[in-house]
Amino acid sequence: MSSKNTLSLVLNSVELNPQVIALVEKLRNENELDFQEYKLLLEGTYSLLNSKDEDSYNLGLYSICHVCEFLPNDNFLLQILNDCIVSSRIFLYKEMLPILEGVKESFLDLYIKSFYTLETGTILTKDQKKILSLFNEHKKIIISAPTSFGKSRIIEEIIINNDYHNIAIILPTIALLSETYLRFNVNSHIKENYNLINSLGLADTIAKNNRNIFILTPEKMDMLLDEKPELKIDFFVMDEIYKIQDDVDRKSVFSNCLYRLSKMDNHFYLIGPYFNDFSPNFRKETESYFKKFSSEIVQKDTYSLYKMEKGEEYVIRNKTLKKKVNHKLNLRDIIKSVDGQTIVYNYRKDYVESLSKDIIAILNKPDEDETSSDLIEYISESISAEWSLVKALKKGVAFHHGSVPRYIQTEIIDSFNSKEIDIIVCTTTITEGVNTSAKNVILYSNALGKKDNLLTGFEVKNIKGRAGRFRVHFIGRVFYFHEVNENDRDIILIDYYDKEELSPEDVIQIDKEDLKDKNLETRERLEDLLAKNKVPLSLLKQNKYIPIHKQIGLINFLRANPIHLVLAYFEGTHPDKDQLSEIFNLSREHLFNERDYNDKGFRYWELSRLLKYYVYHTPSIKQLINEQTNSEYIDSKIRSAFKLITHYFEFAFPRYFRAFENLYNFVYREYHDKPDGGISLKYLITLLEFGFVKENEIALKEAGLPNDIIRKVSNKFSDCNSLEEVKLKYLYNPNIISNLSEFEQKIFRRYI
Fold this sequence. Notes:
single chain; alpha/beta; Rossmann fold; 6 domains; 7-stranded parallel sheet; 6-stranded parallel sheet; 37 helices; disordered N terminus
């Protein structure tokens, strides 16, 4: 059998205990050992788990997980296994094994377990206990630990065991927001003591409650701090903290959010996987403590097919397979051989959809065995029955990427975790902190976004980490079809603290007293330049993340060409079509970033047409899909429509138009020598950002409801001006949404 499938961790640890390695490898391949072999393996494992060396401890966990996966049928051996679990200090392993219920626990075992059991009843692992102790000692900590480690479990314990008034939980994705909100909402210790705020529509409830938990993206948190500068956060968490360096499009807002929160001199808990160090400058500035943990409580069996020769054998449980040259044939063999659910990674949205069709063909599920569900019916009616996602779901398969609407992404994950779906094909949308019940992960590609942009070792390990879920699996399986590396990131750096020469846009967001050397020189040079051009710094500062040279370019253009002040001018709530065209054209020419300006998927005339169609006709999603002219294929039309909504209408256009309004009005007032006057794009921006302009509809959209459900219940909540009022009205009269289908009511209850 191939030795190329063994975990790199284990290979690096052979000198620690070669006998344990050899016996685990035999157990993996043959699924059983004889009595003496089990005994030797467990005795060696017990010794490893009592070592203070982290590699030895992790090797001990690797062994325990494999023994738990292939249990011996002998009471004496089960007693030794129980002793190993106690030594590992991961007591929840035992709860996963009903067969150990009959094994006697000594007084010492119970005493040790009680040491790791909190007053809330939460049982911590050895390393989780260390993290909680580190927080209690330092109050400002940064933790690097593998996926499925249980980093986020510590958040609730920190909150419960401290007396904070305002807490911020900053998460990068809507999926993580929803998951965290729902988890907090069922935790009575938190729910009874804190007001949970997961949208700006609930911000009005802050004044009524002196104990709040804000569960927001960094963008929303940044907006909240702009709207309520007096707000003091006592404790904050930032999950997936690596995005502060990796996410090119969002790292400035991550940095700005972290900077503003940490300036409040509060406690914090920054977490993420697989990095060896964190900005020394930030740690020095905030007097915070960094610690890396490496233990994997869900171990991984890795199958590196790219290292194997054609015809080379490898074993999955007790099935022997042979490596083939064709990737789709290998995919077929693996899917038909594994037990448990599977995530398949590919690097492009259209490739993800295409691969899901290949998997359906591999499964060859008869039409009479097709699945029917409320989700399938809902998508068919509200989007399209011809969408390949509908066809995939009927076969127990789904795809998941950034152009799938967020509420459908959530339903797909729920259906997967409830085992209604067996296989998900995805981009990185699932691999960034979303918990699933997948036992198997197949990296069908080693690229990210583009074929020549290879996954880093950090990104590979993050995807790999989705294989196996603690309290469900002991072992996750990972299959590599292409060459990858699994190196951890050396260090996470933060532009605001570590970059010698910041961009002008970042420089103006930082308090001047915090700048030094070249960055201070840049700030002073900017202030001189702006003074000469008679442009206030505060004007540019409020247009966050729009390049300063572009803002000044638009100001100078309008000053030199005042006819455009006339062409874009309107009175009332919204512009007519000609005025909107003028505003769009000026914004595109002067404010758009390079990616949006050169987007081949949406030529500027097509964007202009679709913008006006959306604003003046308020189409349904079906109508908007039909308006996509860049392809005749329904899947491409749907991808295009959802990109248009999520990227342009809800995100990019509001940002550009806010900046345009500020800059236009500055020049308009300067030209007319008036302290006020100009145009208001509030109606337009609100309509684009939310799809609605009424207060109750905006509140429902902010909560996460899809537009078609909002339209069906809008009149029921027409007298509500906030999400809090919507919730109260529904609480007192649940039948108010009886016009919705059962599935739509389920979605309503989830978000409201």
